[in-house]
């Protein structure tokens, strides 16, 4: 595979990963925290209503995990396509 | 036992001595050190510095108070100011680090092969950063005033002096290491009172879990249920209930996220790490350190509200002895009355305090039957929720002294980051990039120190004489970053076909539409009386507040830029190569720039 084709394949894989991560990002904050908050609030998580918990706690925890997940998967992609730094 | 003032002087003095010590140790000797700390900062250390850079006086002092009074609706700030880091880590930071230059406008200028684009970016950067820094300087003055009984101007002056020493000497290098120290001070100062309060109320020392626990009083009721109950009993909206519209919350959250990712003083922190992969993990670490405070804040807010109401409403609502007798109020109440942040007015002359929502007509009618003649807590400043927290919880004086040092650390660290963004874009983008490209390294370093000194003086002056719009600036800073900078940066990486004409048209569209929408409701250039319509939900277009418009501005920016770029010439070949180059972490041998 030429360098150019390889880099394009790398970029495509990256875009797919970004799209996946941003879907989760959207779901936990906008969907669970705002749009579906009333429905989720009928469920409780300890002393929290679930929708409220996502809006003030859960979404933030997921954001943190998402970034590390992305960084980890990108390091793997960097090696797989041999575009990593030395 | 030492008195509070002496203790506060000792604690604040010790932190200041630490910052100056770091400044002497971390001097910058090259422009690379001054602008990007030599690109040698460990990603975890950079994450910590970014957290201090990001968390301002507003995050430290005001956010918990916002949550206390807005309840669920304050979630927009919690999600908005953290979710932006996901965008930053996935869409901008690694690529801008790969680009490997010193400033955000520099990327925009090179990517769109245009001085105009660079100039527009410099303008947005300076306006957003200056407006933001005024608030920090004000925060420094207020913290000094309240805790050290120094007058406001002297307080701002001392703050300026401290920042001057380490920012002018050390640039990004000095600022990075002091920010790490400042993070430690501020997070300790924030979490210690929170832990004690959570322990008092729920028996659970971790505030994040305490907020979801049952009360320690043996009633078996959860804290949040109890809070909902006692606030609705007094005619307020339930803490966990939604008050604003979903559309506005959605757009405000989105605007804050996009704005966060587009703020230059945050982005430039990621230029300081050694590698592209470090930029990704460093954003994760930054969010870890931010999340410690941001997930504690809801607990602080809710518990402070609960404590405040229970102090005043001591018994059943409507019974004669259900309300606190004013003469028997606790010491912290008296202390904060002196500052004017708490104000009581005995409207019905019964010598007791009635605190309720007299704007709620149904409840106000019932209150009248109790013999209440209006809400008597005529002022409860939101900032009190953090500032008075240790006193309300009966914590020792050293904790109160620590809160003062923490507030100052939060304000100073953010101010320094903003001042650096301003001064580098003056010396590097304007001077070296446009006015005198042939300038030597030594002269540029001198110019950057002078620009820093100038920026500090201007910021200090504006902090002492804040223009009337100081309170409105958050909307402006985030609106500008969201509507102009973020889309231009993102398309510069993800859209190879994006060209000069498209980017400039998009940036101007986003910028102007957002400015006009903000000015329409808040007055042209924030001059009172010049607003075209009152800033009320009824007047907003589709209920979208000016603060929430940044996301719409960004959408307009993207749309216009893509349409214009489709009908104009594609960017030159070397620019398309540049885009291909920044998309991969490894430095290719062909591309040397």
Overview of the molecule:
The complex is a heterodimer of chains A (86) and B (593). Chain A has 86 residues and is mostly helical. Chain A has one domain (3-80). Helices cover 79% and strands 5% of the residues of chain A. Chain B has 593 residues and is mainly α. Chain B has two domains: 4-305 and 392-469, Sodium/glucose cotransporter, CATH 1.20.1730; 317-381, no CATH class. Chain B contains 23 helices and two strands. Chain B has a two-stranded antiparallel ribbon. In chain B, helix 7 packs across helix 19 (441-464) and helix 18 crosses helix 19 (441-464). The longest helix of chain B has 51 residues, at 152-202. The radius of gyration of chain B is 25 Å and the shape is globular. In chain B, 56% of the residues are buried. Chains A and B meet through helix 1, strand 2 and helix 3 of A and helix 5, helix 10, helix 11 and helix 13 of B.
Distance between the termini of chain A: 21 Å
Instruction: Please identify the oligomeric state.
Output: heterodimer
- What is the N-to-C succession of helices and strands of chain A? HHEEH
Low-confidence stretches of chain A: none
CATH topology of the largest domain in chain B: Sodium/glucose cotransporter
Secondary structure class of chain B reads mainly alpha
Strand content of chain A: under 5%
> What is the approximate shape of chain A?
elongated
Topology overview:
The complex is a heterodimer of chains A (86) and B (593).
Chain A: H1 3-35, H2 37-40, E1 44-45, E2 48-49, H3 50-80
Antiparallel strand pairs in A: 1-2
Chain B: H1 4-25, H2 31-36, H3 43-54, H4 57-70, H5 75-99, H6 104-111, H7 115-148, H8 152-202, H9 207-210, H10 223-233, H11 246-262, H12 264-267, H13 276-312, H14 331-338, E1 342-344, H15 361-370, E2 377-380, H16 384-387, H17 389-392, H18 397-435, H19 441-464, H20 473-494, H21 500-522, H22 550-567, H23 573-583
Antiparallel strand pairs in B: 1-2
Helix pairs in contact in B: 1-8, 1-18, 3-8, 3-13, 4-13, 4-18, 5-11, 5-13, 6-7, 7-8, 7-18, 7-19, 7-20, 7-21, 8-13, 8-18, 8-19, 10-13, 11-20, 11-22, 18-19, 20-21, 20-22, 21-22
